[in-house]
Amino acid sequence: MPEAIAPTTAPLPAREHLETLVGDILAEARAQGATAAEAAVSFGSALTVTVRLGEVETLEHHRQRGLAVTVYHGRSRGSASTADWRPEAIRDTVQSACAIARHTAADPYAGLADPERLAREIPDLDLYHPWTLSAGEAIELARECEAAALALDPRIRNSEGGGVATRAGLVVYGNSHGFCGGYPTTRHSLNCSVIAQDTEGMQRNHWYTVGRDRDDLETPVAVGQQAARRALRRLGSRRLETRRVPVLFAPELARGLIGHFVAAIRGGALYRKASFLLDRLGTPVFPEFVTIRERPRLPGALGSAPFDSEGVATADRDVVANGVLQGYVLDSYSARRLGMRTTGNAGGAHNLIVEPGPLGHEELLRQLDTGLWVTELLGHGVNLVTGDYSRGASGFWVEKGRIQYPVHEITIAGHLNEMFEGVAAVGGDVDVRGGIRCGSLLLERMTVAGE
Amino acid sequence: MTTDTLVLARQQLLAPAGLGENDLHRTLACLLDHAIDGGDLYFQQRRAESWGLEDGQVKNASHAIQQGVGVRAVSGEKTGFAYSDEIVPPALLEAATAARSIARSGGEARLQVWRSAQRPALYEPLDPLETLSANAKVRLLEAVDAEARRQDPRVTQVMVSLAAVRDTILVAGSDGTLAGDLRPLVRLNVSVIVEHGGRREQGSSGGGGRVGYGWFLDQDRALGHAREAVRQALINLDAVPAPAGTLTVVLGPGWPGILLHEAIGHGLEGDFNRKGTSAFSGRIGERVAAPLCTVVDDGTLANRRGSLNIDDEGTPTQCTTLIERGVLKGYLQDTLNARLMKAAPTGNGRRESYAHLPLPRMTNTYMLPGEHDPAEILASVERGLYAVNFGGGQVDITSGKFVFSASEAYLIENGRVTRPVKGATLIGNGPDVLTKVSMVGNDLQFDAGVGTCGKDGQSVPVGVGQPTLKIEALTVGGTQA
């Protein structure tokens, strides 16, 4: 066993220290002639270990600092960043940003968030739960996780390892409207990736668990066993003949599909007219039974934030109600370009929750009847301008609600508009491991290409 | 031209902190004190800028400086790693103490005397950010915008980005390696949206390399990318749904070489093969491609995006043959995996930054040219797909399944290229896709300098290339069943 060294992650600096730095940057920007400025100072610390075939493979200590500033000279702006917190580095960084702002064109929409939208109070959202485990303890957890996978079945013959990661960070943001706020967060995860082998070949699969609090994590044994089961069930994969069939997306992939929806209603895509969901506000995008809510202040959730990355207070809202698009995902700049108000989404959406339906996995397979259950996707074949969708896939062929055999080396293709309109069911089997929470999604029909 | 990059790297990275060779020795000795097999220090300073144009104006730009030192200790298959964003003696020792905790006994490594390899540089040690004035950068972006809009009234949006990075690195290893490199990298990208009859499509084009910004002004390159982006977008306006199913596919030359990167390259990286997790594991000497196919990974091409004078472990890059006339010849190695596989490092140990561990990675991966005229290849296809431009790709190295997504493709009907079809993902099996290659063109081209490869969360610039290729059967993921 390696010697146990110090706590897993370096202690966070005091928030007051980062607030002082933000104040120094804003003062320096003013001194160098900026009419407005915003700055963020960050500190992050992490420990990651991987164990492969019972032996430590890597032990990594991470500790990173950052400082970023955007200055405005009237409506012209410039940005600069560095990892150096010394006063001379602050001066140089502000100078770089100001030098850029002298060359960029005046942009009538540029500027800080409107003062009345900035967060007035910063509630504690329960996002900081440091995990003080030693490197030795982390290695033991990773070993336990991988061992559970290797022990599940003799066909689990090889491994890419079990891993543990624990991170803590603190970001303070401030701007020349007088806003300054920051809060610490933690994020811990366990993961495992193993390889199942039979006479036909090898199949790899993985599983992971992630949370703000170590108590939110699945056990190492559960993660290892799930990784092993997922690899084993892929053995004996066949191809399919080209056909059009209903497709059931597993929850972890359904989250990605909702991610494409979010990307298409982002302000940047809309004002550039680079979205297939242009001018769809107030119109149905999904069937009537689909509702998607944003809940930015859920205590302890992975996507929670009291304010967005320009200080705007976050608030609950419905993004889709009864299938109808209620709002976009906007920051101040894109909102001004669209003649709208920011939705507090500078930096992205915060806890987007697709309201779960009543059906569990088995019932969804029965509703699918005969078609494809997709459990893995490969590649990036999504065109958000046109909505065309075509990706590599693997999963299971299902007949009359029963899984027949695993399939691979196929693609699934369609148009995102039709795929969203064609949602036939939302599962109750919600995956909460990220900023988008969603159960399985059953889609009426897609083209499967194979032999 | 030979330039002593080590001297320059020392001046930039060590001199400001008052660090000398004694400090490097002391830190490495601290690592070895813990009975590890070896270790290294990786000093880096990265200066980067990016300028963006939209609505005809340069409205946003940013500048970033990143620097630090990564300390790695290796013991058998174990790696301990820590880094600091402060290049000062106490931070070095602290990182070394954290990194060495991986081992408590076993290694017998001894500190070796410094040795530095010197060879002609593949690119100039210039700072690309300084190769054009701020005014000239803005004017270049505006000229590209004007050129794109001038092409066609259906162009509704033009977005242009111009970026440069200067990386200065220095590697000091307990095996005596002491090497430095100054790596310039520039990149231009043009992306347009066209609109006609209520239909919108996009097109993009870009390029770059380990050169200064002047490269874009030479040979009309920057304006050429503007015209190319518009051409692609307009073609997509006429595209019909792509076919679904297994077809004969002809891949154009250049960037479609992403096929080789996904189907072959990743599966031949040393780490996966040492662990036996690649579909290519243990298959050296076997036939994995048609005899027409010879594939190499070459980090020594002058000024190319994927090239490096030395890799991030200080090993000089080289041209490594992966497949020779259809037979699997070799793997891509960093020092760790080479040692464990009792092979020689191939100069493919790369890392995103000082805050990441080195891994075996590709540089410029390409197929050597064959005999056929590209026109002859197209004429030989009765019904198929001709794919000339691609977006990204991905591979599952264990099952060997890989995808790459076409962004510009046409139907081939009776030997003639006919209608454009919408983008579609192509899927195949790495270990056998090249066995289905029936014709190789005489028109080897490299990509324009746009590739970025991701592995284990680390991004590094890479290049690809190939001649026109005919693959007898590949699955095309369109919507027309």
Q: Keyphrases for this structure?
A:
heterodimer, A: alpha+beta, five-stranded mixed β-barrel, B: 481 residues, alpha+beta, six-stranded antiparallel beta sheet, 11 helices, 22 strands
Note down, in words, how this protein is organized.
The complex is a heterodimer of chains A (451) and B (481). Chain A is of the alpha+beta class and 451 residues long. Chain A has two domains: 15-231, PmbA/TldD fold, CATH 3.30.2290.10; 236-256 and 356-449, no CATH class. Chain A has nine helices and 17 strands. Chain A has a six-stranded antiparallel beta sheet with strand order 3-2-1-4-5-6. In chain A, helix 1 (15-31) crosses helix 2 (87-101) and helix 3 packs parallel to helix 4. The longest helix of chain A is centred in the N-terminal third of the chain and has 18 residues, at 135-152. The radius of gyration of chain A is 24 Å and the shape is globular. Chain B has helices at 5-13, 21-32, 89-100, 134-151, 214-217, 221-237, 258-265, 270-275, 335-340, 374-379, 430-433; strands at residues 38-54, 57-75, 78-84, 155-173, 178-196, 199-209, 244-251, 295-298, 319-324, 327-328, 349-350, 359-360, 364-367, 383-395, 401-413, 416-421, 424-429, 437-440, 445-446, 451-455, 458-466, 469-477. Chain B has eleven helices and 22 strands. In chain B, strands 8, 9, 10, 13, 19, 20 and 21 form a seven-stranded mixed beta sheet that branches. A six-stranded antiparallel beta sheet of chain B has the order 3-2-1-4-5-6. In chain B, strands 7-14-15-17-22 form a five-stranded mixed barrel. In chain B, a hairpin with a 2-residue loop joins strand 5 (178-196) and strand 6. In chain B, 21% of the residues lie in helices and 39% in strands. The mean pLDDT of chain B is 95. The termini of chain B are far apart. Chain B is of the alpha+beta class. The radius of gyration of chain B is 24 Å and the shape is globular. In chain B, helix 2 (21-32) packs parallel to helix 3. Strand 2 (55-73) of chain A pairs parallel with strand 3 of chain B, so a sheet runs across the interface.
